[in-house]
Amino acid sequence: MPNCCGVSGRVMTYRHAVRSMAAMISCLLALLACELALAAESKRVMVLHSFGRDFKPWNEYARTIRTELERQSPWPLDITDHSLLTARSSDEDPEAPFVEYLRALHSKKPPDLIVSIGAPAAAFVQRHRADLFANTPMVFTAVDERRVQSSLLTPSDAVVAVRIDYLEAVKNILQVLPDTKNIVVVVGTSPIEKFWKEEIGSSVASLSDRVTFAWTDGLSFDEILKQAAALPPHTAIFWELMIVDAAGVVHEGNAALARLHAATNAPIFSYDESFFGSEIVGGPMLSVQEGSGQTAAVAVRVLGGEKAGDIKLPPVRFAAPKFDWRQMQRWGISEKNLPPGSEIYFREPSLWDQYQVQIVAIGAALLAQAILISWLIFEHRRRHLAEVLARNSMSELTHMNRVATAGELSASIAHEVNQPLTGIVARAGAARRWLKKDTPGINEALAALDQIEAAGLRASDIVINVRSLFKKDTQDRSAVDINKLIWTVLGLVYIDLRKHEIELRSELDDQLPSVLGNEVQLQQVILNLVMNAIDSMRSVELRVLTIKSRPNEDVAQVSIEDTGIGIPPSNRDQIFNPLFTTKENGMGMGLSICRSIVLSHDGRIWVSPGVNGGSIFQFELPAKSNKVSAGAVAA
User: Fold this and answer.
1) Are 280 and 127 in contact (CB under 8 A)?
2) Ordered alpha helix ranges (H), 106-157
3) Which CATH architecture has domain 476-635?
């Protein structure tokens, strides 16, 4: 049983392998059949070149036509290329063997279509049409309509012709360069070049009174280069063709034009787009793409069974003018001289084109910065004016505060002044009595006079202090003895202290340094704080005014403590604000002025609760030596 099962399994595996092999062979045969069918359906196209595959402008047409054929054709294409080398000379003897070669090459499989590119190839085909595939349809392309002999066309021939307007091309030169006096036409000695020399000459004959034409068909290309390097001013070059020069040298591709461009001192123009892109300035030109596209379309129609002779197309004419920006820059050609509708190619992007976003961003940033700076300058000036106005207003308010204080101090001032005046009167009378005695008391009279002088000086000091207190000009600063100011203020409020039965306690440190400031303003600060302390103690029983001064590192500190009603905690942060007051008839300016004066002296002022109720107002000012050293450091 095991052996039997093994044999059965091997038989089944063998059958599966045979079936797989059969399926694979069937697929290969199907693919081969498809390939054969496609090969049978492919279209054979023979392309006949005028001079060779690398001669301009026809090589550009050939390349583009091939691309367009492959793009437009619904069938596979078998394209072969042949070159008419005999077109380089006028000798037609070698053409017969070339015809035999082509016929022998395609005798078994003639082409489905022949495409001749360029006038020489078209002329060759028309000369040998009967011998060269008489029944094969043909398409003539890249050929000027003047080079096609209509009488020799057969029903199997289609023409995609162009029309070269030499007069328009030359007028374009004169429009772009209005000062042009000479035009050098570059043309060789091959049969087609000789033909076009005559055509150009007859086309531009009407311009002979405006510009002089010169021709290069009698020069070798090396001689052309030498002349091109030394052309007179206001000269332009018109590039027609350079296939064969006067020395018999054949020039393929773009090499000749590139050498001329490198050597010449004049701009180069042409009528064919195939030369555009490096050496040519530009202008109205034949479009390679347009002509090639029409040729491929006609070829596909013919390959599809349409009769070639029934296809009639107008000749392709100059497209819209196009110019090379690089050549315009080299020769100083202005855009305003270009024909309407011109297109400019190869323009080097400007800084704006390359960095438009960055420039806009930088410009916006600079504009924003300028606006910000202008706003800051405006704000600075506005704040400066506001500060000046505030300073003036503060000065006025300070003065008003002093005047208001004067009403309260009038009794004290009268008492202070009256005391020395009374003493002066009494001592003057005593001195008179001593002098009237029979034996005058000279010593007693002198003592009375000394007392009179002292009383007069005291009265003078009182008047000076009062006058200085109410002066508005308080800008000058000098060394100020704070202790002396305190004693002066206490002398002014002496009557108020006695009137309200206020006990005065003073602890003034003799080592207190002087400060640099305005004596009148600082006196106003002390006076305001003392008067506020007196007012706060009118309704309390314990009335003690304590004034202290002491040095604290590099500042002079003053404290004025009262035992009055005190300041509610909620009001301490606002007590120095303008127009804020706890008095019934107060203006709310006294403490605000005190703070402004202290801050203007680089000091600080604050309030705290007193030990026995009431409040302690304190301020400190930088010592004079500290200000001087700070100024010296800043300098």
Assistant:
1) no
2) 119-127
3) 2-Layer Sandwich (3.30)
